[in-house]
Structure formats: structure tokens, C-alpha cells
Amino acid sequence: MNLSSIPEKKRFHFIDQFRGLVVIFMLVDHSSYFLNSLWLHFNPFDPLFDSWAQFALRYVSYLCAPGFLMINGAMVWWAYHRKINQGSPDWTVRRQLIQRALFLILLQITWVNSSWGGFSSFQPWHFGIISCIGLSMIMQTAIVGLRWQVQLVIALGILAIHPFLLNIPYDPEIMWEQALMQTFIDSGKFNKYPVIPWFAVAIIGSVMANGWLSAWKTDKQRILMGFSIGAAAIFLAIIIRMSRGYGNIFPFSDFGSYSFFFDQKYPPSLYFSLWFIGLVVLSISLLIVIGKAAPKLLTIPDIVGKVPLFFYGMHIAILGVFSKRIGLFYREGDVTSTLIGVVIMMAVMIPLSRWFYGVKSRSKNFIIRML
Prior knowledge:
Strand content: under 5%
Shape: globular
Radius of gyration: 20 Å
Number of helices: 15
Number of domains: 1
Structural class: mainly alpha
Number of strands: 0
Distance between the termini: 30 Å
């Protein structure tokens, strides 16, 4: 690693824009969760859709978890190497990353879990996506200093082994077995986002950061390399999907049907992980292209992408209070109602995000700086 190649502190606009796109997709999915009557019978562990519109509404959110894990992994890589380059002690940097990770886990159990019900009750006993990101960060601190080639081997090894780990038997009615297995391997009521496969996705983000933020000096390099790597990941995912065996969880009818694209997310199959790793990389490459050709199109993702954690926590809380707790159109609508809800929420969240970014930029408060 050539530490002199790590840039000083700066904003990577394509990272902000991608994070913004991801949290907007999250808003689409969460608006559907609160407003769409589909959720009266929809089972995310065994999805069934009655229309392509409902499928599309759900499917756009499938980029979110892989996107956030990869980008968070990339930012861990960048923060670590930048601070080491500035002369900070190795353990000090790792400790700061762990501190950030513990904050995410605390935020999950104190705010995020309860916000889903509009804060009608305290719900600490759930792990969730933000906790998964936090624990992945803690694990990433152990390997963040390794060469990208070694990290890539570790990530691919984890992804390859995870399908076999799903065969480990356990009793979900026994609390310690449920907590242990669903924290790390399987999905269920305690946690939908097991750390082991998602940690591998975060490591891939760290590997990509070496290119995005350091080795690839120009946007042209980022675009060409990104499209090549993204296409290769998707090609490998298709090979695995067409095998209809190892690496698959849900069967599919025909190539190109929505059942072909919709393999299991809870926990993620190998096909799912590779497919969305590829889509994340392709999406970032496309955003760089758009940023060069028509940057004004990315104004809104850029605004909300500067404060993605704030956007995430606030939009769920607002929907939870007004829809779930007060009962305003709670699961009474359809696709149209969901999209109207998205427009209303964006009208609220864009100025809120712009305001909070200003506050965060000026503040020295620990909690505000962490959000």
C-alpha cells in the first residue's frame, strides 16, 4: 500500500450520491411497508407478487443493504488509511472505528427498533441492519490493514462457505441458539441480517475502495474498471443461478422472470450477494458518468447522501409515528399510494437533510458528529 496515494480529507461526490440513491430506495420500500396493503399478506421470507409493479416496488430496495455494507466497508478502508497516513497510531485509528461501530449498534437498539412502531414501546431485542453494519465494522478493523488481494480472498471464501453454514441445525425456540445463529448465519425474528455474509460484502467494499478512492486516479478509470468488475460479478451470479443448486435458495421458473431475479435476501444466497455486488459497482460507475454529463440530475441524492444515517433514522420515525402509531393510511393503499407517500416524505426530508448537514458541519457534539 502506497500511503502517499491516500488523499487528504475530502468528499467523494459519487459516494455521497450513491448513498443518497440508496436511502431514497429505502424510503420507497419503507413507504410501501407502512402504506401498501400488500404487506397485510406479504411474507419477505417467502415473497409472492401479484404484479410487476409490486415486484418493482419491492425489488428496488434490494440494492440497499448490499449498497450500504459495501460503501461502509469502503469508508472504513479510506478512514483507516487516511489517518494512518497522517501519522495516527494504528490502534487509535482502529479504536475510533470500533467506537463508531458501537454507536451504530446502540442506535439500532435505542432508536431504530422503536421507531418502526412510532415509539409506542421500547424494542431493544432486535439486531437489524444498522447493528449488522456496526458489527461488520468491528470485524473489519481486524483486516482493514491487509492488502486488497488478501481481503478479496477472505471475502470470496466467506461467501463460498456461507451456503454450507446454513445447514447447521438449531432450535429457533431456544433463545441462545436463535440469537447466535441469526446474528451470524441465518435469518429470523431476532435478526434478518446475519453478519457473516454481510461482512463479506463489506470487505468487497473495502477492496473496491482501493480502486475507487486511491489506485484509479481518473473518473475514466473508475468508470471502465467499475463496469468491467460489475459485469464480471453479475456474469458469475448468472452462472450460479442457472445451476439451480449451490448458491441458490429460491427456485425460479424461467430466465428473465421475476422469480429469476428474486432469490432470498434473508439470509442472502450466494447468487443474491454476487448479483447485487455487481449492481452496486455498476450503479456507482453509472453515477460517475451522470455526474460528468449532467451533474444537476444528482442534486437530490447528493443532498441526502451527505447525511444518510440521519435520513434513515428520521424517515422511519416520521412514517412510524404518523402511519403506524396515529394510523394515517396504515396499509390501506397500493403502489400509487406508496409513491405519493414517497413524494411527501421527500418534500419533508430534503430540507431536513440540508439543515442537518449544516448543523453537523459546524458541530463538535459527539452524537451529532456520529450521525
